[in-house]
Amino acid sequence: MGVFGLFNKKKKETLDKGLEKTKESVFDKLTRAVAGKSKVDDEVLDNLEEVLITSDVGVGTTLKIIERIESRVARDKYVSTSELNGMLREEIASLLEENNAADNDDWELPCAHKPYVILVVGVNGVGKTTTIGKLAYQFKKAGKKVYLGAADTFRAAAVEQISVWGERVGVPVIKQQMGADPASVAFDTLQSAKANGADVVLIDTAGRLHNKVGLMNELKKIKDVMKKVLPEAPDEVMLVLDGSTGQNAFEQAKQFSAVTNITSLAITKLDGTAKGGVVIGISDQLKVPVKYIGLGEQMEDLQLFNRKEFVDSLFA
């Protein structure tokens, strides 16, 4: 099998285990939806709609999936309920593909210039700083030189937490005293990273959604200041969401995308919940690719999102 094969096998096991609750829940509901039916008719489609909505796929995305399956049923005249699973799988995979959810298999960075800058946003409590720590670990393991910026300066705990991650992973953390100007921390981080030939920079930001105007201004200021050091920064604005909150994560995603231009998503805490369907809905509604998913506490449990593997695990 080789080392790579073993790693992939372990990764797949983590994914399967992480999506287990969602899968069981979706399967139970699907089984009930087609009970006693041999062909896909209106009643089955109505039941399927309910299955998807109650699996946190979201109303808009569910209607899109149902519409696509309806037109396939109309075209093929007779579709057996046993074929429904395969159809769902295909339609969900193609939805994810349309939203540019890549089949990421390695930790390469998608640009020629260095450092690649990721500005990380999200409300407190979603696992934002932990995700940054795990990303730093994965990038470092892939041979990248990583810098972290502690620009969530409003919470002493946030600066402390990211410093602990920096020590644990063995990467430098650029920070100032609590209450410092976040843009100033971002500026220092980029200058340091650039001077020291870093490959990737991850910047933690404060997550105070209740004060949207303040947040909007702050993120704009951070971006403007970064451009003084690196005109192309940030390369990515990544929103971290807690998948276990289901529809609440949807709301946060909508509110954040109203405040700033989100270019990628990291969806955490999928292992303890049956709400994994939220990955499909959020990506579709925001038209933003899911890039990383969190499936447990371990460093390795943050994975690159691979839509094919995700759909396979969900409908295996």
Automatic annotation (TrEMBL):
<keyword id="KW-0472">Membrane</keyword>
<keyword id="KW-0675">Receptor</keyword>
<protein>
    <recommendedName>
        <fullName>Signal recognition particle receptor FtsY</fullName>
        <ecNumber>3.6.5.4</ecNumber>
    </recommendedName>
</protein>
<dbReference type="Pfam" id="PF02881">
    <property type="entry name" value="SRP54_N"/>
</dbReference>
<keyword id="KW-0342">GTP-binding</keyword>
<dbReference type="InterPro" id="IPR042101">
    <property type="entry name" value="SRP54_N_sf"/>
</dbReference>
<keyword id="KW-0547">Nucleotide-binding</keyword>
<dbReference type="GO" id="GO:0005886">
    <property type="term" value="C:plasma membrane"/>
</dbReference>
<dbReference type="InterPro" id="IPR013822">
    <property type="entry name" value="Signal_recog_particl_SRP54_hlx"/>
</dbReference>
<dbReference type="GO" id="GO:0006614">
    <property type="term" value="P:SRP-dependent cotranslational protein targeting to membrane"/>
</dbReference>
<comment type="subunit">
    <text>Part of the signal recognition particle protein translocation system, which is composed of SRP and FtsY.</text>
</comment>
<feature type="binding site">
    <location>
        <begin position="204"/>
        <end position="208"/>
    </location>
    <ligand>
        <name>GTP</name>
    </ligand>
</feature>
<dbReference type="InterPro" id="IPR036225">
    <property type="entry name" value="SRP/SRP_N"/>
</dbReference>
<dbReference type="InterPro" id="IPR004390">
    <property type="entry name" value="SR_rcpt_FtsY"/>
</dbReference>
<feature type="binding site">
    <location>
        <begin position="268"/>
        <end position="271"/>
    </location>
    <ligand>
        <name>GTP</name>
    </ligand>
</feature>
<dbReference type="Pfam" id="PF00448">
    <property type="entry name" value="SRP54"/>
</dbReference>
<comment type="function">
    <text>Involved in targeting and insertion of nascent membrane proteins into the cytoplasmic membrane. Acts as a receptor for the complex formed by the signal recognition particle (SRP) and the ribosome-nascent chain (RNC).</text>
</comment>
<feature type="domain" description="SRP54-type proteins GTP-binding">
    <location>
        <begin position="289"/>
        <end position="302"/>
    </location>
</feature>
<dbReference type="InterPro" id="IPR003593">
    <property type="entry name" value="AAA+_ATPase"/>
</dbReference>
<dbReference type="GO" id="GO:0005525">
    <property type="term" value="F:GTP binding"/>
</dbReference>
<keyword id="KW-1003">Cell membrane</keyword>
<feature type="binding site">
    <location>
        <begin position="122"/>
        <end position="129"/>
    </location>
    <ligand>
        <name>GTP</name>
    </ligand>
</feature>
<dbReference type="GO" id="GO:0005737">
    <property type="term" value="C:cytoplasm"/>
</dbReference>
<dbReference type="InterPro" id="IPR027417">
    <property type="entry name" value="P-loop_NTPase"/>
</dbReference>
<dbReference type="GO" id="GO:0005047">
    <property type="term" value="F:signal recognition particle binding"/>
</dbReference>
<keyword id="KW-0963">Cytoplasm</keyword>
<dbReference type="InterPro" id="IPR000897">
    <property type="entry name" value="SRP54_GTPase_dom"/>
</dbReference>
<keyword id="KW-0378">Hydrolase</keyword>
<comment type="similarity">
    <text>Belongs to the GTP-binding SRP family. FtsY subfamily.</text>
</comment>
<dbReference type="GO" id="GO:0003924">
    <property type="term" value="F:GTPase activity"/>
</dbReference>
